What we know:
- The complex is a heterodimer.
- Chain A is an all-alpha fold.
- Chain A is built from 9 helices and no strands.
- Chain A is globular.
- Chain B has 3 domains: 46 residues, no CATH class; 83 residues; 108 residues, Immunoglobulin-like (Sandwich), CATH 2.60.40.
- Chain B contains 6 helices and 8 strands; from the N terminus they run ααααααββββββββ.
- Chain B has an 8-stranded antiparallel β-sheet with strand order 5-4-7-8-1-2-3-6, with helices on one face.
- In chain B, α2 packs across α3.
- In chain B, 20% of the residues are buried.
- The chains are: A mainly alpha, B alpha+beta.
- At the A-B interface, α2, α3, α4, α6 and α7 of A face α1, α3, α4, α5 and α6 of B.
Amino acid sequence: MTSSGEPNSPGERANANSELMRRMAGGDRDALAELYDGLSRPLYSTARHILKDAAEAQDVVHDVFLTLWRNASSFDSSRGAAFSWAVTLTRNRSIDRLRTRANRARLLGNSVPDDLGYGSENEMLGADARVDLGDRAVAVRSALAELPKEQQLALELAFFSGLTQREIAEKLSEPVGTIKARIRRGLLKLRDMLANRL
Amino acid sequence: MIDERQEELASLHALGLLEGADLEQFTAELARSPELQRLAAELRRVSTALAHQAPDAEPPAELRARVLASASSFALDPALPKAFPTNGGLVPFRSWIPWLVAACIAVAAVWPERLYIRAESENVSLRERQRLAQLALEQTRAQLGDARRLLAQSGRQIAELSANLKAEGDLAHLKIATLASMLGNSPAALAVAVWDPTREEGVLAVSRLPALALEKDYQLWVIDKQYPSPVSGGVFVVDPATGEAHIVFKADKPVHSIAKFAVSLERKGGVPKPEGPIVLLSN
């Protein structure tokens, strides 16, 4: 802990979130408010990046925090951090909406925009303008930046696009095997680089 | 020892990209291997950290209030029992009455709102699903119409193909023969005979045969081995200018296996058995 009482190390942060979840399981709404203050920004950023729609991203984040609130008693810190759980919920729900939207567009006969924003450097390079991000976010972005570009792109598409392996391969005009290898190498490198920082 | 393939499956699994048989296989391996479980957990943690790669966006302030308000409405059930004293024996029953009234009023006030929020949320979801279902239904109807049209079109094509196949089948049964000239003075004379055994009917096309005197006829013969003599196919004359003739003929007797066709020069009206010279003969 820092002198101000804020958790500092990754382990302290995870423990603090686990404690908030435990309090939430007991009906403590202040704990929910604290967890919201700590996690809402990365969760909202993730949902917004996947959905490219602020209103839908808000719905997803709202839904995720309600799910955490209602299911806090089932949270088991030995199975993963609260942050990981929240990110997984956010990503899954965002991708579900993305696919529902694509399905609706198909039913309406509209084409889904092919360019989902990946591959264009605008947003990725926009990271330079990031402010108020925690150490963790900076660490993750720095580690990602050290990966070869093709591994970065494969991981970003795998995480944010909602595309399948085959669709990612088609989008990047590469064999599926190549995409799988890039994802494997990229994730393993990230694991090594972030070993003591997550 | 974890191999590259397991690392690959664990990576894809962490990102939710495993499907079908790969997913089943990996799940089974995962259940057996604590080492693989550790790797999968590590990669899952790393993969969720990718969320930090999203461009930073500040959620609107009202979202916090909305989340906390919704949490309040959902907290009602677990909270209710805690609102009642657990050491009831120390509180006189009459002193409960105001609390009960207040609780009833609170429940009466909050429950409808909670129910309304839930119902409204479900309504929105149901309306959306209904709209999608309606769209799917309309699309299915359109596809059904297309399918019916295609079916009708296919039926017509099948009928045409059947007719063509039948025609081709019939063609395969036809006996087709070329008759060459046996005449020294008209070596270019030629004829083609086509015999349809199903209908027991044939067509003969002749060209460059010399025109005949009025008391003469050409006579077509069908040679079937079951008969000792050729069977007559009828008489014909040719156009004096071109030497051509086209006739549809039938044999005088039922024929089963035609060996050859022949044309002879006979007296007017024809004869029961060939008497004159053979002018055309098939191979």
